Every structure is written in C-alpha cells, then in structure tokens.
Input
Amino acid sequence: MCGIVGYIGPDEAWTTIVEGLKRLEYRGYDSAGIAAIDSQGTLRCVRRKGKLNVLLNAVGGDWVPGKIGIGHTRWATHGRPSDENAHPHCIDDIALVHNGIIENAAELRDMLLAQGQRFTSETDTEVIAHLIALSKGDSLEERVRKAIPQLRGAYSIAVISSQSPDRLVVAKQASPLVIGVKDGVGLIASDIPALLDQTQTFIFLEDGDIAVIKQSGINITDINGKAINRPSKTIEWSPTMAEKGGYKHFMHKELHEQPRAMADSIRGRVRADGTVHIPEEILHKCASSSRIVVCACGSSWHAGLVARLAFEDLADIATEVELASELRYRKALLDNRSVVIAISQSGETADTIAAVKLAKERGATTIAIVNVMESSLARLCDHVLYTQAGPEIGVASTKALTTQMAVLILMAIAAGQYKQVLSETSAQHIIAQMLEIPRHLESILEREEELKSIANELKSAQSALFIGRSYGYPAALEGALKLKEISYIHAEGYAGGELKHGPIALVEPRVPIVAIATEGPTYDKLLANIAEVKAREGRVYAIGPENEPRLAHEAHRLFTIARVHPVLSPLLTTAALQIIAYHVADQLGADVDQPRNLAKSVTVE
Ligand code: M6R
Output
C-alpha cells in the first residue's frame, strides 16, 4: 500500500519519479505527488487527489524542477483521499513521503499541537514530517534518527531537505524499501518494478535501517549511526516484464503470460529423470512435522486450500489452512514440530508476515512460497521456494496464484515420494501430466473467445454463485473473488455440498451458477448439485473435463478443460475463471488493473 520513489542524479528528478510511480500505481491510487529541490535550493511540491494521471494533467509540462526529488502514490489509511492528505508532506525545509501506519499518530499530533505546530492534513504521515522539521541544526540523517524512536508502527519513509540538497534519507520499519544501485545516481523505491528501467541491481533494506543516498554513494546505518553492510543483489527481471507490451491491461497480459510462468515454475523443479527437486531439508521437516499449517491472504489463501488437499492426498500429511489475519491473533498451538508454509505473491503482506513472526516465536519451521525475490517474507522464513511468475502488476492475482498452486503441488509430490507413501508410478504419472499444463493453458487461451462469450452472458448479473467440491472448491472461491474484485458483481463461492444448507435459497433465473466440476469421488455429487440448481430454474455455467456428456447435458454453457489428475485440475479451472472475470470487467468498462479501494500489496493491517 502506497508507493514511494526517490531520485538524486544528473537529470531532472521528476522524469524517473513519474516513470517509477507509473510502475508502482498498483500499490495505491488515491492520490499522487512529487517534491523536488531546484538548483536555487527551493523546495517545491505538487500533489493531487486521484490517480497519477490526474496529477500529470494538472501539471501539464510544468514540473517541479530539480535533480533531487521524491514521489508518492497513496492508498489512504489515515484521512480520506484529498489534495491535502496527498504526499509529499512539506514542513519548513522538509519534504517527506511515507508508506505504512503510525499507530501513535494521535498522541504525537496532540503533543505537536501543544507545542504550537499547525497541521494541514488528517494523515499520520504529517506528524513524521513535523518531528523531523522540528530538530534543526543537525544533518538530515541525524534529524531522522531523532524522530524515529518516537514513532510506533510501520513505516518506510523518504525525506529530502532544502538545507541538504545533496542527499535523500530513507528509513524502514515493517514496510518495504529497496535501493537501486547505479553509478552516479541514487534511487529508492517501495518495490523492484519501479526502478527496473534504471537498474536490475538492488539493496534490500532491513527493519531499523537508515540510509543516506547521495550521487556519490550509499551509506547504511542503524538507529545509533553504526555502519551496516547490506549486499546488493541482481534481479533477473527485465524492464519489459513490467510493461503492458501492447495489451489493454496488465491483467490481460499476465493471463497470457500464464503458460510461460507455469513452465518456468515447474521445469526448474523437475529433473531430467522426472523426479521433483525440493531441498531435502524442507522435505524432511514437512515429513516429520506434527502438522503443516499453511497461512496466507486472499487468492494466496486459495492456493493454500489446494495445498491442503495435495499434502493430504499425496503425502499423508495433516494440513491446516489459516487466514494469516486470523492466525496472527489466535492462541495458535504451534511448536517446534509444526511447519508453517506462508504463501504470498508480494512477500510483503503485513498479516502474513506477522503470522510467520508468531510461528517463529513458537519454534515452528517456516517456509515461504513467494514470487518477489528478496521480499520481506522471503528473508524472514527459514526456507524459501520462489515461484517464477515474473512481475505481476495487475491488482488481481493471476499467474502468481496458479504458479503458487503448482509449486505447492510439486512440494506435495516430493513429500509423498520422500515419505514413500506415493508410489513411483503415481508420482511419475502426475509429474508427466504436470509438464503438459503449460500446453493446456495455451489451448485455454486459444479458446479465449468462448470464455469471452460466457463473460458476455454473466456481465448483466447482479449476483453470482460459484460452486465446486474437492479441488473444484478453491477454484470456486477464487472465481468468485476474481469476479467481485474487478467487476464489482457480487459473487460467493461455496462448497457444492453446502448449497442445501442455505445458499440454494438464492437460486433463481437471474443468479447465474458457475459450477467447477473436478473428476474424482465428488464428481457425481457435483452433478447432483447442478441438477438441484436446474430444478430451481438456475442457469448453470460449468467448467469441467472434456468428453463428459453428462456435464454437457446438464449445463447451460460448458467450458471444457483437458482431463488431468484431479490434483492438477485447479491449475486449469482457475485460469479459465480468471479469464472470464477479466472479460466481464472489461466488457463493463471497469478499471481492471486498479479496482476501486484495492491495492496490490497489502502492507498494512
Ligand atoms: O501478495 P500476496 O499474495 O500476499 O497478496 C495476498 C492478497 O492480497 C491477494 O491475493 C489479493 O487477494 C488479490 N487482490 C487477489 O486477486
């Protein structure tokens, strides 16, 4: 939530900052702003409520000049979206941008008011700007160092001062911040994609770090001023990966990248002899654990539901799936025999990070399934397995989710082999089919028009029900989430068996039912659920295996997927549902990549 960019170098700062903000808008789009210091040492700031485009239009070509500057795109926490609440916040010689939440902002505000300070916004951020502005005389980094101990909460901040226009000062606590490494230029941002057109080498700050970035170099210290060495790392993401590449939306591009992302995520882990490569230490921990607890939020939690089924079916390991936001506040009975698997695209989700910290305190082994290299979660967990989805910019998770599912299924296969509860023949059969998944995803995309025409029928609905059983259930939940988050059509996902316990009351001709039929023991049961819906004049849109006349007969519309082992079916059904949701939203003219009220990386509670 909220994106930060900063630049100091030989060029006009705003050019790099605007480019960076465009690539960070998925972190929030309630307002945008830039501050810069010109060659006369004057600090200027422009900021506007609304998306970056509003600011660009307001400014025209008349940008704040200067070779040092900071920019911000906001997801509102304290204070409604408005010009006044937009960052940067400028007090005296200071301009400051912030990502995070200051929990004691109200107390600090009262203290500052009592000292005679005046506030012009409702934000928690303005208190930080006041605290830094108040301590005059010292270097900018010293002023930041004095202010920080007074703050409670999460923050990454970037500060500039007209009194020291040769440096950017940044500080990080529980919100992400990276430094881009480039000769003669200082670069900072919330996230890697913001700076990919400038550099592929990054330094990842840790909590408590304060960094001074000058054109001549980077100096990182702790709160006491003690020097810290943080190594730089090169990221194998290219700048074009974070661009739309001719697609109307990032989400559409990312849907089309799914076969490649899946191939990359699977192939690196399957050896030439057809066995799965997952580090033995991870397998040993999983196999000897009392239970696996998977925790995540949103779509990543749906990947966790697939993981539970896969670990139980293929590896005989008891597995629970927890919403990270619930787990972190529960008396979770975790100990050193528990394995906690945290799933996250961004690796920055605040609740998931907090749940992992709790698990670590209780002695559990922690494993991250993460897409973004060197993200907070990747660094926090004892082990990390990266998905290879590449940058995902659209707020709706697509390729990140299906590649999470793939990595978790591979883990379950490997754990089953390690425990010798999954026969070699079964393992080889599933792995061989898994290697075909990218090709099946290609053929789903080749039939996009079919999905588009289903979307055309769904788009007039006020409300929709998604049902599935077994491996179809996580897909049903995901189909409903995807539809509601980008098209704003109310949708609910249910386990098919639950229909009779309440939701069937909603069935009527105007409420489409999307049924995800997965082969296996519950297949006939789902067909029975479909019949029950039809008997009540429900219109059923089914996603299910090809060459299945019974399903074709029951459904009003059927989109077929390749016949694969049930454990692999969510990789295909989910992709089809994501494409349907995309086209519903696009046909309704919704803002697909930046749905209202959402941000891609939920870095606050
Ligand atoms: O980065 P994470 O995977 O931790 O994010 C979790 C959720 O915020 C995310 O999946 C969210 O639900 C998406 N908007 C779903 O499309």
Notes: DSSP finds 20 helices and 24 strands in the chain.
